[in-house]
Specification:
9 helices, mainly alpha, 3-stranded mixed β-sheet
């Protein structure tokens, strides 16, 4: 946030982020100015470089700093999740994904959230929950990534001779019922 005489200056990735943020303000009299400051791009690339150098703590600090300039900041939030996943800090990643869901406005981002949760569930060998997450991701966006992960998960379930590996989510109602059972459905924010 850059406060100037004429209002608060923030960066937004696109119109959906801008409208999402502005519509959720308690004080609708605030003057929010969409300011695509290049400094935020520098922060983003600095965080990516630090991440590549395995300087995760510093990368996280830079990403959190970027959120001061971009309050919705979906791409920065996803990078924070990736940072946690790379450290195998799955609990932190999952908690962050839980918070992230309140900032997601695009179906492709919902799909990505479910794919990342699915990945974490796969790494934790919770294959049933992983499969549900990848199936849910496909509801929001068709993805070869999800298809490949589902093949892997189904092979693992078949190897484990799991009864649930025989279960198919051939319709959306069955999928949602299973997702609710495992507490994998997001509640929509009130914004």
């Amino acid at each position: 946030e850059v406060e100037q005489e004429n209002g608060l200056h923030y960066s937004f990735e696109d119109l959906s982020e801008f409208f999402y943020y502005v519509s959720g303000l308690e004080d609708q009299t605030l003057n929010i100015i969409w300011d695509n400051n290049k400094y935020i791009d520098i922060l983003y690339y600095k965080a990516l470089a630090l991440f590549e150098l395995r300087r995760n703590k510093e990368s996280l600090e830079v990403l959190h700093n970027a959120l001061d300039f971009s309050p919705v900041g979906i791409k920065y939030r996803f990078e924070i999740v990736e940072n946690f996943i790379s450290q195998k800090a799955y609990l932190n990643a999952e908690e962050y994904l839980e918070d992230l869901k309140f900032n997601v406005v695009k179906s492709s981002d919902f799909a990505r959230v479910y794919r990342r949760i699915g990945y974490i569930k796969t790494e934790s060998k919770n294959y049933i929950e992983a499969r549900i997450c990848f199936e849910l991701s496909k509801v929001f966006e068709d993805s070869n990534i999800a298809d490949q992960e589902l093949k892997y998960i189904n092979s693992k379930l078949e190897t484990l001779k799991s009864e649930s590996s025989k279960h198919s989510y051939n319709n959306l109602n069955n999928l949602i019922r299973e997702a609710i059972k495992y507490n994998l459905i997001f509640e929509l924010s009130e914004q």
